[in-house]
Amino acid sequence: MTPEEYIKLYEKFNSGQCTPEEEARLMEFQDDFKFSETDGLPLNEASKQKRLAIYTRIRETLANKHQKKSFRMMWGWTAAAAVALIFSAIFLFQKKQPENTIAANPVKKSPSKPIKPGRNTAILTLANGSSITLDDAKNGVLAKSGKSSVKKLANGLIAYSSDDAAPPAGEPARNMVTVPRGGQYSIKLPDGTMVWLNSSSSLSYPVAFTGADRSVTLTGEAYFEVTKNKHLPFIVHAGGVNVKVLGTHFNVAAYEDEKDIKTTLLEGSVNLSNSKSSVLLIPGLQGIAGTNQEITTRPVNVNQVVAWKTGYFIFKDDDIRGIMRKISRWYDVEVEYEGNVTHKTFGGIYSMNKDINELLKGLELTGLVHFKIEERRIIVMN
In what residue span(s) does the Protein FecR C-terminal domain sit (predicted)? Predict the structure, then answer.
């Protein structure tokens, strides 16, 4: 199978038109994909090495053929983009590098402690102002407020429960979970709603939902699986945008260092509104509130949007600055830029549990960008 045939077949797979035989061949493309001069590219030894390195990374990415269907769809466009990337990288490599140059420049780094990936870590701030570092806390009841209590479960999840079916009188106390850079955490709210918080994010919420709605306030990014309640809508307040639902699965990204607030719907329906506009989302759509307050929508690959929740970085047509913002939050590093850094886009998939050097080396294989690590600072260069 030639690379061009492979990409066409993956496009057919993504549209749901592949036969079982074609799908099987697609998943075994590494056996058909030949690295030789017969595919129309004159290869010197250095470019062969570089092409093989990229190919090996793709094959490792797709090695697990038993992933569930939704993630196989995700692998689809990622691999196709990566294969296309092979040829652009080789073209640039052959154009820029002399014959005897090594295949790729290694990530330059100064002696320092290794930069480890993020972990489950968060701080719970109670209504009285006291705080609890959740990763250090023992399992069991952490605090009580009236009839409500918050517990840390054996799997690290924190969950709320009430000792009385009757709602407490007056305005309920509010707690806040804050996830630092280099962390993630999940929480079960008093109504049973599950929330996964990404790095550099926080969620403020009442210890009991007693009013006309279930309102929470988010900064950063979170994925919600809302418990259905036709009488009490669930509302997320995020950077001037209100996300209103009855019961659904969706992702909200409202980082202060991003210009847009993005809400992506996976299941159910949500209403997005702000001071200027209002839209209704259906599954597969993303609502974008820009700096002008207008809310627009677009179809997206939802698996790409929520990949962080399952431990992956997935890039598709992402520029290097957007990629490095995600890397900075997860690995808790500072990023600087030298020179006129490329505005070209990148595609690929990387495990968030890997060493940062492996991720950066993968990006360097394109030949479009290079990195230097100094302590906890990453310098991005052309």
Answer: 312-380
Q: Which amino acid is at 127?
A: A
Q: Could you tell me the pTM of the whole model?
A: 0.71
User: Other C-beta atoms within 10 Å of 230: how many?
Assistant: 7
Structure tokens of 286? 């993303």
How far is 251 from 281, CA to CA, in rounded Å? 12
Amino acid making up residue 46: A
Report yes or no: 300 and 264 within 8 Å, Cβ to Cβ.
Answer: yes
Q: Write the single-letter amino acid at 307.
A: A
> At a CB cut-off of 8 Å and minimum separation 6, what does 181 contact?
118, 199, 200, 328, 329, 330, 332
Please write down the HEC assignment for all residues of 153-204: CCCCCEEEEECCCCCCCCCCCEEEEEECCCEEEEEECCCCCEEEECCCEEEE
107 close to 33: Cβ distance less than 8 angstroms: no
Q: In this structure, what token pair is assigned to residue 8?
A: 């066409």
**Alpha-helical regions (H) of the chain:** 3-14, 20-27, 29-32, 45-61, 69-96, 302-305, 320-331, 356-364
C-alpha span between 91 and 338 (Å, rounded)? 24
> Torsion-angle region of residue 293: left (phi > 0), alpha (psi -120 to 50) or beta?
left
For 16-70, write each residue's pLDDT tens digit: 566 766 766 665 554 444 333 333 444 444 544 544 544 444 444 444 433 333 3
- What pairing do the DSSP bridges indicate for beta strands 194-197 and 183-188? antiparallel
> Tokens at residue 121, please?
């870590």
pLDDT bucket at 282, cuts 50 / 70 / 90: very high
3-state helix, strand and coil shares in percent for the chain, rounded to the nearest 5: 25, 35, 40
For residue 102, the 8-state DSSP code is -
Which of 110, 105, 64, 56 is CA-nearest to residue 83?
56
List Cα–Cα distances, 336 to 109, 111, 352, 373, 381, in angstroms: 14, 18, 21, 10, 9
pLDDT grade for 280, boundaries at 50, 70 and 90: very high
